[in-house]
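Continuing from the previous page of notes. For each protein in this section, the sequence appears first, followed by its structure tokens. Read the first protein now.
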Amino acid sequence: MKIERVDDKTVKCFLSNEELDEYEIDYKDFVLRSEKAKEVVQEIIVQAEEEVGYKPPKYSFDLQIMMLPDQGLLLTFSEREAEGEPLMECLKEMKRALEKAREKVGATGETPEAARQEPVQETPAEKPRKPEFAVFAFSTLRNVMDLAAALPCNLRVDSALYEMNGVYYLCLGKGHASYERYSRACIQAMEFGSLYGAEQKLLLQLEEHGECLIQAKAVKKLRG
């Protein structure tokens, strides 16, 4: 494991193919935020603190992943830009609310439909900007198709599908859907895949390095 400090807020870590085999981990694990990947990331951060004096952000950081053919992976850790943070926190809060609603279903016998329609209450202190774009990562195309089948047929979101290094990325935009319905769609997406990010630069990376499988109305087309 080779760690290099770029500046006060950024470090790079190179993991060789041999090290990836030793950890029993690959590119997909980092993209999909598997438990193995989280453990390795934590180990890298601790080593970076010891070797190069890296001080990780107090709250969150961006992780960029680059495959180096026949060599390994290059991971870049940097302080998260504010652009995607509101969506991250908003969806996490809504997901917690949804999980509580499901617990209530089990405890009271209330129907799942009633629980889904239960409004999400925001505390006065939490008024983040409402982002209207997010990218989700999926390990298989089947997972994306299952999500498409689970979403309402009349959901008017914008969507595009990309593939890069064996991972499928669904770009989901609010489109003409209400913000509540869009947020619920994002929460459902996290049940089939993982939230990859909410920065426009991610879409640019996919357009440059990935393959566009469905340019528009991906959810509708995958639903068949």
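Done with the first. The second protein uses the same format. Note its length before scrolling.
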Amino acid sequence: MRTTINMPRVGDTVDEVYLVTWKKSVGEKIAKGESLMEVETDKATVEVPSPIDGTIVELLFAEGDEIKTGEPIVICENL
């Protein structure tokens, strides 16, 4: 079964972030809590953990892209 992971809120007043780097690639397995990506806010760089265990099927943004809270960012195949 496939699951879409959405961009979580990374701060009380943060509505969008910029993707600095992906920590995983398509085809790689990821565990719940493991770092999925690193994003930059107007104040800090933050690691975003995976909310599920799975295998990455598709990354929906490229490094440097702006991502709004709640937008789909990854499609995973559940383990």
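What the second structure shows: DSSP finds no helices and eight strands in the chain. The radius of gyration is 12 Å. We return to this in next week's lecture.
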